[in-house]
Amino acid sequence: xxxxxxxPELLATKAYIxxxxxxxxxxxxxxTNPARGDVIxxxxxxxxxxxxxxxxxxxxxxxxxxxxxxxxxxxxxxxxYDLMMVNAxxxxxxxxxxxxxxxxxxxxxxxxxxxxxxxxAEEAKRIYGETIPGHQRDKRIMVLKxxxxxxxxxxxxxxxNAMITRKAGPALAAGCAxxxxxxxxxxxxxxxxxxxxxxxxxxxxxxxxxxxSRASEIGKEFCENPGxxxxxxxxxxxxxxxxxxxxxxxxxKCSMELGGNxxxxxxxxxxxxxxxxxxxxCKFRNNGQTCVCANRIYVQAGVYDAFAAKLKxxxxxxxxxxxxxxxxxxxxxxxxxxxxxxxxxxEDVATKGGAILTGGLPHDLGGTFxxxxxxxxxxxxxxxAQEETFGPLAPLFKFDTVDEVIHMANxxxxxxxxxxxxxxxxxxxxxxxxxxxxxxxVNTGIISTEVAPFxxxxxxxxxxxxxxxxxxxxxxxxxxxxxx
Length: 484
Ligand code: ADP
Known about the structure:
Elements: E1 15-17, E2 20-22, E3 28-32, E4 39-44, H1 48-65, H2 70-86, H3 88-99, H4 103-123, E5 130-132, E6 139-147, E7 150-154, H5 162-174, E8 177-181, H6 188-200, E9 207-209, H7 215-224, E10 228-234, H8 237-248, E11 253-257, E12 262-266, H9 272-284, E13 294-300, H10 304-316, H11 336-351, E14 355-358, E15 373-378, H12 383-386, E16 393-399, H13 402-410, E17 414-415, E18 417-421, H14 425-434, E19 439-442, E20 457-458, E21 461-462, E22 475-483
The structure holds adenosine-5'-diphosphate.
Domain Aldehyde dehydrogenase: 21-480
Family: Belongs to the aldehyde dehydrogenase family.
Protein name: NAD-dependent succinate-semialdehyde dehydrogenase
C-alpha cells in the first residue's frame, strides 16, 4: 500500500494518544483489502486500560482547548481541512485499499469528510449564547453555550473517513476533545486523520485515535468512564441500543446515527430517466453499503415495467472490480457476512414469488464480489421489506395509490432517509410531509451535505450531524440568573 502513496508517511499503524504514537498492549490486528483478501497492515490493538489513558489525556487537553477563542480553533481546523484536501488522492487510496469502494468514490468521500471540518471550523466563531428579558425587575438572564467535555466516538467501516469528521468537526469546533475508536476493518483512514491533525497543529490530546479489535470492551470503557461526557455512535440499531443502555448509568449524552430502511418511490408522473439515475446513485453507491441506500424501491403500476427495463440496462452497465482499477464503478462487499445477507434476501424474494431481472449471483471475480441485482415482484411480506440488505440488491415493489405507498413506506421501525420522484406539486408536498423520515430526497438520490442536518427519527437515531444544528450536540446550555 505504501508504494501506492505519493506521501508514504501518511500510512500510520500505531494509535495516536495525547500527541504520541503508541503501540497496542494487545499487539496488533490485521487489516485486509476486501478486493484481494490480502493483509495490508498490522495496526496497534489497544487494551481497555490504554483507552482509559487516552480519555484521561483528552480530559486534560480539553480544558486548555476550550480556552482558545473560536477564531483560534477555526484557524487550526482550517489547516487540518487544507491538509485533507491537499492529500485527498492518498487518503482515497488508503480508503479504497481497506474498504473496497472505487477510488473516485473514496476521493469523493475524503472531500465530503473534509467539508465537515471546514464547515464546523467556520461555526466555531458562531457559538452564540442568548440574553432573555428578566422575569423580575432586578433580574438579568443570560444563556451560555459551553463545550460538553470529552466526546468519544464509535464508527463503522462504510465511510471510514466521513463518519469520523462529521463528529470530530463539531466536537473540536465546540471546544470538546475527541477520542475516536474506528471500525477494526478500516482504522487506517482514521489514523491518517491523526497524522494530519498533528501536522495541522491540533494540540496534543485534543484528537485521539484508539484502534482496538475489542469493540464491546472499548464501548464499555466509553460508557463507564466518568471522563467521557458524550458518546457519538454511527452503526446498527442493535449496537446503538446496547450503547444507550450502557450509557444510561452515567446519564451520558448520546448521538446515535443508526440503521435505515430507505424507501425510494417512483410515481407515475416521475421523470423516469431521472428516477433511474437517482436510484442507481442511491442504491449502488458504495455497493449498497450505506445507511441511506434505497432498500425498497416502490414503483407505481403504470410505470413499473418501463422503470424496471431502464433500471436493468443501467445496472448491467456497472463495472464490478477492484476499486483501484480505473473504470470500476462497484467494488467488493466488505466481508463474507455481507455476502450472506445479500444471498439470504435474494433467496427469500425468490422463494416467496419474486423474480430475478438481472444479477442474483456471486460475481465471477470471486471473493466478496457480487453481481448487481434487480428483482421484481417484491412484496411487503419479504425480509427485504423489513431489514436493510446493505448490498447490491434493488427490489422492485409495485403499488397503485398514494395512500397505499405511504403506508408501506412508513411500515418499518426505521426512519432515516426516504426518496421519491414525482412532478405534481400538491403530491410532492403531501408525500414529503407524510413520510416518517428525518431526511427526504425529492427528485434526487443524493442528500448528504455538510450544510444540512443529517439524522433519523424512530429507531434510526438521536441527534443530527451537519448544519448549524450539528454543533448543538456538543454544547451544554448554562443559564445564569443575575440579580442587579
Ligand atoms: P456495522 O454493521 O456497520 O458494522 P455495527 O453496529 O455492528 O454496524 O458496528 C458499528 C461499530 O460499532 C463498529 O466499529 C463495531 O466494531 C462497533 N461495535 C460493535 N459492537 C459493539 C459493542 N457491543 N460496543 C461498542 N461498539 C461496538
